[in-house]
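Subject: Interface between my chains keeps coming out wrong

I've been trying for a while to get a sensible model of this assembly. When I model each chain on its own everything looks fine, but I need the whole thing in one frame so I can look at the contacts. Pasting all components below, labels as-is. Any help appreciated, I'm running out of ideas.
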Amino acid sequence: MRTGLTRSAIRGLIGELVARGVVEEIRSGSAGLPGRPSPVVTPDPRSAVALALEVNVDSLAAAVVGFGGTVHGQVRVDRPRAHLSLDDIVGDLVDLSAPMLDPIRRDPTLLGVGVGVAGVVRRSDGLVRQAPNLGWRDEPLGARLGAALGVTQPVAVANEADLGGLAEHRRGAAIGADAVLHVTGEVGVGGNVMIDGRPLVGAAGYAGEIGHMPVNPSGRRCGCGSHGCWETEIGEPAILSLAGRPADGGREAIAEVIAAARAGEERASAAMEHLGTWLGIGLAGLVNIFDPSLVVLGGMFERIHPLVAERIDAVLDERALPASRELVTVVPAALGADGPVLGAAELAFEPFLADPAAHLRPARSVASA
Amino acid sequence: MRTGLTRSAIRGLIGELVARGVVEEIRSGSAGLPGRPSPVVTPDPRSAVALALEVNVDSLAAAVVGFGGTVHGQVRVDRPRAHLSLDDIVGDLVDLSAPMLDPIRRDPTLLGVGVGVAGVVRRSDGLVRQAPNLGWRDEPLGARLGAALGVTQPVAVANEADLGGLAEHRRGAAIGADAVLHVTGEVGVGGNVMIDGRPLVGAAGYAGEIGHMPVNPSGRRCGCGSHGCWETEIGEPAILSLAGRPADGGREAIAEVIAAARAGEERASAAMEHLGTWLGIGLAGLVNIFDPSLVVLGGMFERIHPLVAERIDAVLDERALPASRELVTVVPAALGADGPVLGAAELAFEPFLADPAAHLRPARSVASA
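Reply #2:
Try treating it as a single job with all components included. I did that and got this:
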């Protein structure tokens, strides 16, 4: 992590963090190098935590996550794909998180609440501008959740694909990579780009809607209102239809198609071939646009990756600019379904990481009072 | 400009810059505000300069540009669209710049050389990886130019669309905008994204090749080797063919088509309609991907903008996600053909701006010797 702080400022800050119990200082081994070893500072996961929530198309989740990524408790419940009101979802999230939240609600170590949602989110206030797969438009998720949870800590909301990408960069398949494109898909297709460890968010936080890149302008109508978006070729309904299954079969139907393709079923294999080709076509464009060193495939694409990896590589060879092509590797995500929740926790820790001293001040004034 | 320096460090640095004559300090008026007015620091354009060069498909240019963007001298010559060797082009650039360069070659105020080229460039060493419209592949433009110019200053090379975007952000249509997409087109279509004043460069500097986003995968073969890239729908040859003109008519033929469309000629108007529609389709995807607050159209798109602005807006309304759509404005570039040269100068000043003190040190040791 680059902080822009001098070494002595960092030492002072670590001292404060240790005194507060937020991190532990562990002497590192000398590793055969000369000079006094630098201490290794490990976050104490029990003393700084975030409540992380997720609203996706198939499930709701709540977790308490320690600073550093340790999950202390997590619960996930399936939800029907029906369009539920904001009030219903907020009510469910409150119920889901209550057992974990109640013991720490007033605790100063609870630094914040992070929320991932399958929609286009205005980051400044957590307004969900558009979430076609939830049936939402301009729903004030952040504000409503803050009130309903009864917490005074900040509630930060972001798109769940963005948070999945953030988590893969901090804790998963993309640790240390300088330019990462994260592509995730279930019903919808979303994405996130991390450049030097910072997410590309755009003017208002809406960036990364790569599922709505037009790849086939005379193609199928998309849930967003346009035609031929990438999502209409590689999203769950497209794959299921091509495989001759009901388009609304959901996650279980996709699992069945994957198994059938492995067993050599023709329609299922054709659907995988189509998916590999169109994943490759869209990725070629995105590789040309972003020049990433790594592409991480998440969601259903992670599960399908072994079946389509070869086809994707072949299409990239054919369609991406050679200079960018030769730099990039396509890998499956490492965190599975937990990515967005871990990313939501990272989001909640961000104000603290940006200015740890400010967060320590209240505790110090209490101590000196 | 954000420097990460404290106010007192900045004062010290300005003192050194004034002593060296690189900047002038001018007392600002009080503007009716209380307190001691901050001095306004203006770069002294005569005392820190860059040599800026451009290799595009139709012309070569050389300029001496002062720190702050003042052009002290510039020369541009047309070139045929034939494929010329690296040696020929380097020779031409040396001849073109000699009258301006000779008087300042050994001058410490010449901070560097910046070069814009119509191709995919590895930023680390100025290798032109791929420039289909110049007929180049893996040509060491940066290294060869440094030797041929006989300068010891660094030679930095970048894609000319990237530099046009940088210049529009610093001195043109996008001053102060936080998330800007710059789209420029002649034969090829290129682009650049500036986020918070920093260009998106990708893992090796190849980012921004938006002309090679697949918008019509069963479409025409592209110069890059793929099919149906955006460039095949909105590049110069496509427009000229649609207007019933020879596809290789170049810049003058485009000017004639623009005049014909204004006069109501049917084929020319149909070509403009096609261009507006396909500019809109591609921009819708890029707006969804980047969430920019501003789209700047450069090159031939700047000249065509008045004829297609309405159509672009209509297609964006239809195809871009409403949340991102409502934030974005599409405007023509402000710097015309000079954009890439001004951007090349900015590129040459970058090492100085990143660490002004390091550049001042040699002069100080000379003074104290």
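Reply #3:
Confirming on my end. Residues 49-163+338-368 of chain A form a domain with the Nucleotidyltransferase; domain 5 fold (CATH 3.30.420.40).
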